[in-house]
Amino acid sequence: MTIEEIIGLFETSEILTYVGYFFILNISLVIFEILLDLSTSKKRRWKDTGANIMIFFIGQVLEKTVFGSIGIICLLPFYYITPFEVPMTQWTWILSLVVADFTYYWMHRIEHEHRILWANHSVHHSSEDYNLTVSMRLSIIESAIEWIFLIPMILIGFNPFQAIISLLFVAQYQTWIHTERIVKLGWLDEVFNTPSVHRVHHGSNNKYLDKNYGGILILWDKLFGTFQREEEKVVYGLTKNINTNNPISINFIEYNNILKDIKRCRTWKDRFKIVFGNLIWKPIYFEQHKENK
């Protein structure tokens, strides 16, 4: 495919109609749950809900004006250097969804394991509520870098349009699972990412930390040892909550924390590990300084 043909698909492909239908369905579910919570007086942090919606709108504006083309532009060179090409057919769309779901598992897991990526992804986990608006609470700049995780899909022959749209479907699927109103679903909880399964992922309980990374299928977690069933009551939020409903602060508070730690580091090696290492690593002298106070 030429560059013009690939870009043209983002404007003319029939599958975009289904993307639109999925988007409308998800927005409808969010509105329905809000109205249901209002009518039943279900406890909810309404300022938190407002922040989630505001973050969603900011993210949509940035996606449409600044970040929308970054993934396409950056993935095209990899598409043209690979000797492989997967044709777009009904069957390869199914295959693409499975591969995108596998890609999502590892992207999601890596975002939890490296602090600079967690700075973005922690936005989604920082709400102490759990409702459908939390699915909207995504880093406003995360989409500028997530294309990196699609490079393997491109190198094995999928074109950027198919890879991006497949990952979008995986993400859109997850709207409905951000709710407490749907209880356990039996065998479905053992195969798919469901509300019960994903509640665990949002838990700050010790036994729930870094579990259930799957997008659509939860089988990846079972395969790679990160699956956890919902057992004890889930405590939502971070292990250290941010206590703000300011959309900008929510998006950049962890970057500020990283910057503070960088300033405290004594070596460039430690600075590198603070930025790119795991979430809990700190130089020993950080603790020594704390003890001396």
Low-confidence stretches: none
In total, how many domains does the architecture comprise? 2
Mean pLDDT: 94
Number of helices: 14
Which structural class fits the helix and strand makeup?
mainly alpha
- N→C terminal distance: 63 Å
Over the alpha carbons, how many angstroms does the gyration radius reach?
A: 20 Å
Instruction: Describe the largest sheet.
Output: none
Approximately how much beta-strand content do the residues carry?
Answer: under 5%
Principal-axis shape: globular
Sequence of secondary-structure elements = HHHHHHHHHHHHHH
Helix content: 55-70%
Explain what you see.
The protein has 293 residues and is an all-alpha fold. Helices cover 60% and strands 0% of the residues. The protein has helices spanning 3-12, 15-40, 46-67, 70-81, 90-113, 115-125, 151-155, 160-173, 188-191, 195-201, 219-224, 247-264, 268-276, 284-292. The mean pLDDT is 94.
Give keywords.
293 residues; mainly alpha; 2 domains; 14 helices; 60% helix
In short:
This protein is mainly α and 293 residues long. 60% of the residues lie in helices and 0% in strands.
Show the helix and strand layout.
Layout lengths: L2 H10 L2 H26 L5 H22 L2 H12 L8 H24 L1 H11 L25 H5 L4 H14 L14 H4 L3 H7 L17 H6 L22 H18 L3 H9 L7 H9 L1
Helix pairs in contact: 2-8, 5-6, 5-8, 6-12, 12-13
